[in-house]
């Protein structure tokens, strides 16, 4: 008889506390009935008990059947809603911190490195937190099963007109193009943000001995603000491309507008006298790279003085090509 | 051949899972305890193991299809199960569905058999 108690214990200890006693009673009654039928009035031997228990099978499997095989955190009923909420949680967490980072950088561009580190640290802690809490919430909901899956069918309604258009290969913007663009703008932003002193001509006298900067260090903070705004405009343009996913006339118009704005910003920035390092040629001479009056000096000074014009010309060509390229792709049938 | 038997066993398991529920509901217009159900169903050709039936009874009770009551008057206390009102309703609906399935399946199987005969 001890064997029966051990069997019942083995089954019920794996079950929720609240059901244990009832299931134990019921099992005991069942085993009694099975034994009775087996011996038909004779005495019950240990062998009989063992055989009946063998018939009932592995207590672990029996417990599993009582539990209903629920071996998951979030079941199929909730999974779709879970994935949806999870995506929203992760994307909004990411956006909030990114936006915070951009705003902080615009307000206080000099310490962009600190902001950036803080941003990365926040992301590393906040994203798993968002993931964890969302999962935890759904796991709890699933465990208690109070919320019926039907109440949660967000975004499961569907009608044929919701079907996305089959992307037109020729007009399609590959999703990685805008992403590469955004990454490029961010890298340029960060580069200007904390390493202006390296943006110039590097002087080597046997070893590295300094940089003659291209930009005017006194007005650098204002310039940096401009640069960040211009890069921000660029990022907006790439985001538009990402959102549209294909070239349309609307997108071309927006691109043209954004390009015009960024051209005006660049024009204002580098055409102002305070943007470039006013002592560039002097410093180069002092560094011993060129001597005043030499042929090299003439070449360098010509390039230096005309650089503004050439940069603007190249920029105009680039921006106009950007629009024309979009227009060609949008017109393609 | 062994493969065929293995697949058959798996499919039969899936097939039985639903039918056992109907079988259980069909016997519970009168209160029964688990082991008497095993015997009753067995006599009618539906073999179900106690290890399957007992958890199933609890699940159906939790879903509200069955009511249960302990009878402690006899020598051995037993838990009796009985169809609830919802259970009765569900059972009626299930019978209809089941009969339709049998009919449709018969159609499908017989049509196939007929075609085969014709081709031979």
Layout of helices and strands:
The complex is a heterodimer of chains A (333) and B (120).
Chain A: H1 2-12, H2 17-39, H3 46-56, H4 59-67, H5 76-107, H6 112-144, H7 176-194, E1 200-205, E2 207-213, H8 220-244, H9 249-271, H10 280-286, H11 295-331
Antiparallel strand pairs in A: 1-2
Helix pairs in contact in A: 1-2, 1-4, 2-3, 5-6, 7-8, 8-9, 9-11
Chain B: H1 2-26, E1 32-33, H2 34-43, H3 50-62, E2 66-71, E3 78-83, H4 85-119
Antiparallel strand pairs in B: 1-3, 2-3
Protein name (chain B): PadR family transcriptional regulator
InterPro entries (chain B): Metal_resp_DNA-bind_regulator, Tscrpt_reg_PadR_N, WH-like_DNA-bd_sf, WH_DNA-bd_sf
Domain Transcription regulator PadR N-terminal (chain B): 25-91
Describe the structure.
The complex is a heterodimer of chains A (333) and B (120). Chain A has 333 residues and is mainly alpha-helical. Chain A folds into three domains: 2-67, no CATH class; 76-156, no CATH class; 176-331, no CATH class. Helices cover 69% and strands 4% of the residues of chain A. Chain A contains eleven helices and two strands; from the N terminus they run H-H-H-H-H-H-H-E-E-H-H-H-H. Chain A has helices at residues 2-12, 17-39, 46-56, 59-67, 76-107, 112-144, 176-194, 220-244, 249-271, 280-286, 295-331, and strands spanning 200-205, 207-213. In chain A, strand 1 and strand 2 form a beta hairpin. Chain A is elongated and about 125 Å long. Chain B is globular, with a radius of gyration of 18 Å. Chain B is built from four helices and three strands; from the N terminus they run H-E-H-H-E-E-H. In chain B, strand 2 (66-71) and strand 3 form a beta hairpin. Chain B has one domain: Winged helix-like DNA-binding domain superfamily/Winged helix DNA-binding domain (Arc Repressor Mutant, subunit A). The longest helix of chain B is centred in the C-terminal third of the chain and has 35 residues, at 85-119. Chain B has helices at 2-26, 34-43, 50-62, 85-119, and strands spanning 32-33, 66-71, 78-83. A three-stranded antiparallel sheet of chain B has the order 1-3-2. Chain B has 120 residues and is mostly helical. The interface between A and B is medium-sized, with 19 and 16 residues.
